[in-house]
Specification:
- By secondary structure, the protein is an all-beta fold.
- The N terminus is likely disordered.
């Protein structure tokens, strides 16, 4: 997951122009897609949009977003069970259709949990979470394809 001895970020934007026909994340399977069998285990808030929208296959429409209440004093979270085991090469954070309604920043943590693991109201699964993507700012109406 990057060089821990460097001050450089552990990720990079695989497609800064947002229109490259192929880039370093091209050709990988989306392990967090419902088409691969992924599921949302639990989410902190689904006030204006279902968390299942995070894992829908294909390009999103504005109504396909996970939008939570604004001005939330704590961070919102969603626990997604991947559809398959695999090596994570990066993340596609898609805010297309959201211009001002998207989160200002995201971070991603991961864990290896048994199928029987349950999630409490605070997102705790009594497992150790590892930071996969540090907090990164995101803009609206863009795809943020971040490779590790």
């Amino acid at each position: 997951m990057g060089n821990s001895q460097s001050s450089l970020p552990r990720y990079y934007n695989a497609d800064p122009s947002n229109d490259a026909p192929s880039h370093s994340l091209s050709g990988y399977l989306d392990l967090a897609s419902s088409a691969m069998g992924a599921s949302v285990v639990r989410a902190s808030n689904e006030k204006f949009g279902a968390a299942e929208n995070l894992i829908k296959a294909g390009a999103p429409a504005q109504s396909d977003a996970w939008v939570t209440r604004r001005h939330n004093p704590t961070a919102d979270w969603a626990v997604v069970r991947l559809g398959s085991t695999g090596t994570i090469a990066g993340f596609d954070i898609d805010t297309r259709g959201l211009d001002g309604d998207q989160a200002a920043a995201v971070s991603i943590q991961g864990c290896l949990a048994p199928e029987s693991a349950t999630v409490d109201d605070d997102g705790d699964m009594s497992v150790e979470w590892e930071e996969l993507l540090p907090k990164v700012e995101v803009s609206g109406n863009s795809r943020h394809q971040l490779a590790l």
